[in-house]
Specification:
Blueprint (H helix, E strand, L loop, with lengths): L6 E5 L4 H11 L4 E6 L2 H14 L3 E6 L5 H9 L10 E4 L15 H29 L3 E5 L12 H20 L6 E7 L6 H5 L4 H7 L8 H12 L9 E4 L24
Parallel strand pairs: 1-2, 1-4, 2-3, 4-5, 5-6, 6-7
The structure holds NADPH dihydro-nicotinamide-adenine-dinucleotide phosphate and 2-hydroxyethylsulfonic acid.
2-hydroxyethylsulfonic acid binds next to loops.
């Protein structure tokens, strides 16, 4: 599939994997709809995308946790932007690392509302149009966390296990249409993710990546671009990518002296 002139909606495009994906699709000449809550960050990414070769860019200030806002944003798209070809359900976050029985209910709700319900809301708003037009591709951001739960992260892991089920269910429900569905499941990627998880505690966030070379957002964007640009009869169901120093959710090889290989800081 060639991306020149194709309409691509990326949620969570203001940072990390979403921003890197926007740039890599911009280089292919795509028309980009960039959605997130932080408008000023989106404006910066939009300008970078135009310089990188995007055909055109629109930003959408949107909190995916509100179904009404998601529906309104999609309904308000001008005619020339309405026929979305590729939806990248990337908006997501983790909050805290706590034993389940001592966790914050507010944190649980934020993760579930964003990573599960937000993904469903955007999918529900965009995919009927893809089916009606007879073309489209949905890419969902999963995680190694959805394949294997780790201590103190049960609720974040549960949201990514839900993503796996939704991805697989959507692919089954779209059977008989030409619409494709892909889950991209990265391991550790150095983005704002840990800053958000630890609410701006830079020291704690840095420890997550200590002693190993994590994936970059561009590495994940590359996998997304690859999945989307396969021939139209090929559906990539899921891609699992990790740093070489990570075997799964639990097992890491860190060069830091004294660090146990399986440590999750
Ligand atoms: P970042 O924190 O760098 O980026 C997250 C993006 O999601 C931001 O653009 C943020 O924008 C957006 N976002 C968060 N909440 C909302 C919301 N309610 N409405 C709209 N947008 C929202 O993290 P990553 O790039 O690392 O994460 C992207 C995805 O990749 C997530 O789904 C994450 O779970 C997944 N992932 C990340 C991994 C990692 O190790 N980093 C590994 C595996 C998967 P804003 O704040 O402006 O709204
Ligand atoms: C993000 C990767 O291992 O921090 O999904 O949960 S991890």
């Amino acid at each position: 599939m060639k991306l020149k002139g194709k309409i691509v909606l990326i949620t969570g495009a203001s940072a990390g994997i979403g921003a890197a994906t926007a740039l890599s699709f911009a280089e292919q000449g795509a028309c980009l709809l960039l959605a997130a809550r932080r408008a000023s960050k989106l404006d910066t990414i939009a300008a970078e995308c135009l310089s990188a070769g995007a055909h055109s860019v629109q930003t959408i200030t949107l909190d995916v946790r509100s179904y009404a806002d998601v529906v309104a944003a999609i309904d308000a798209l001008p005619h020339e932007w309405a026929a979305i070809d590729v939806l990248i359900n990337n908006a997501g976050l983790s909050r805290g690392l706590d034993k389940l029985y001592a966790g914050s209910v507010q944190d649980w709700e934020e993760m579930i509302d964003t990573n599960v319900k937000g993904l469903l809301y955007v999918t529900r708003s965009v995919v009927p149009g893809m089916v009606a037009r007879g073309r489209g591709h949905i890419v969902n951001l999963g995680s190694t966390a959805g394949e294997m739960t780790y201590p103190n992260g049960a609720v974040y892991c549960a949201t990514k296990a839900a993503e796996k089920a939704i991805n697989d269910g959507l692919r089954q429900d779209l059977l008989g249409t030409p619409v494709r569905v892909t889950s991209i499941n990265p391991g550790m990627v150095e983005t704002e993710f840990s800053q958000v998880r630890f609410r701006g505690d830079h020291e704690r966030a840095a420890k997550v990546y200590q002693g190993l070379q994590p994936l970059t957002a561009a590495d994940v964007a590359d996998a997304i671009l690859w999945a989307v640009t396969r021939p139209e009869h090929v559906n990539i169901a899921h891609v699992l990518l990790t740093p070489v120093a990570q075997a799964n959710s639990l097992l890491f090889h860190r060069q830091t002296e004294g660090a146990a290989s399986g440590n999750r800081p």
